Structure formats: structure tokens, C-alpha cells
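## retry 2 of 3
previous attempt timed out at serialization; input unchanged, resubmitting
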Amino acid sequence: MTRILLIGIAGQLGSELQHTLVPLGEVIGVDRQGLDLTQPDQIRQVIREIKPNLIVNAAAYTAVDKAESEAELANTINGTAPTIMAETAQELGSGLIHVSTDYVFDGRKNTPYTETDTPNPLNAYGKSKRLGETGVQQACDRAVIIRTAWVYGVHGKGNFVKTMLRVGAQREELRVVVDQVGAPTWTGDLAHAIAQLIPLLNSESLTGIYHYTNSGAISWYDFAVAIFEEARQLGFPLNVQQVVPINTSEYPIPTPRPAYTVLSSKKISAILGTHPPHWRTALRQMLKQLYAHQ
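## retry succeeded, writing output
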């Protein structure tokens, strides 16, 4: 039986993967209490003790703004830790699936980014994630990196959808950025895609970088409007009457963000034999789940 070590089991993606991976083998999950990603020796020790056939790393430092003042911590968790996972996986002959981000790109394109486009991160968070990509690729022959974007789900503490529902219940007017464009990704679809990839990992051709997001491209403003439309239909309590589009320059954040980070999912779609569901379909499914869990 395949033994899968799932790192980051308590996060929004890890919580979803915990269920999705069960049919594929024995899933051993660790959270930050069970594995401190700032401790290299502990990472090696845990992996060597478990001896997994596959490591799935769904853990990350994701506080984009905080990373500017905590760059060393972000680099440790997003760069050094995945590299050590990859080195230990290589030592054991294990596979590794590592989740990365659209923020490794600078956003200067106006067509979807492919896996062969050159990364050029604008901020400390993006740079830390790129460090992890490079380390994983160099250290492990059986590594797959999945870049995704704008991730949200029922589980986990905070994401854009949950934030919009919370502030939309409190305020009548919201200002949301309209000049950053990307593709939201529901953890339900992302976890399903990762599970579909795992049986293919024994194929030597399945290594390297793949992009996966839900289909379509929108701004944060468009996404907020859609969240409220769908949430109202389901009966979520909302007070918001107006969503005002603003430019990034009008929003007081210290961190540079890429303007356009739509990722092309053509490469992974060819392998899985299916295209990712549209972002609106995914949003509707997530909100139905969230409403049922209230």
C-alpha cells in the first residue's frame, strides 16, 4: 500500500487533501504541532521515520504583506523546508508533490503564464516560493511542482471568499481592487487534481512544473461581486449594498503585487484528460458546502 505523508494537514488545502487522498493509500498527516518547518533536522527525522512512498507538501508561509518584514521566516518555510523534503525524498527514493504559487511571476504579461515562462517575483513571498521551487527541482528526481493561485476553501482560517462574506455582513459598501487579474482556485478541485496525478507519478515523464487553477480569468472586484451574488441566492446574511472598484494604487498595502497572473492549465489538462471546472461553478459548490457547515 502506498504510504503518503501529507504535510500541512490543518490548512485549507491540506484539510481537503486529507479526504481526497484516502482512496490512494495510507495517509499520514502532520500539522505545525507535529512538524516544525523551521527545524531542518526535525523535517528529516519525521520523513525518515515515516518512510513515505510519496510526500505531499501543502504547507506554506502565505502572509504576503507580513513576508516583507519576515523574509527570513518566509524563506525558511517556503524555500529551505521544501528543499529538505526533496533531499530526504531523494534519499528514500520517494516522490514529492509541492504546491507553489502564481506570485513567482511579475504580472507583466497579458496572456496566461505557461510552465516555461521565466519567474520574476515582485515581493518577498513570491521570492520565497521561487526558492522552494528551485530547491525541490534540484534535489529530487521524482518531484512535481503544482503552481496554483487565489486559493480558497471551506477549511482553514482565512481566504478571500470567507473575508468577503464576513465584511459583507458588516458593511454596506466595500472597495475592491479591479486592476489585478487572475483565476480563483477552489481547494476541492485542486485536491481532486492532485489525487488524479498521484497514480501517474511512477511515470518518468511526470516530473517538473504544472499549473492548475479553475478556468476563467477575473479581477478581485469581479470575484467579490460574484461571491455576493451567489451567497445571496443561498441565504447568507449580507448587508453589503455596493462594491466599488478601485485601483491598486488606491489601496494602502505595502507589498507590490503582480497585475496579471492567469496561469495556463493546458499542460495538466492534457495529462488528466479534462479541463479544470470554471471558477464560477467552483465558487457555487464551495459556498453550498460552507452554508451547509454553518
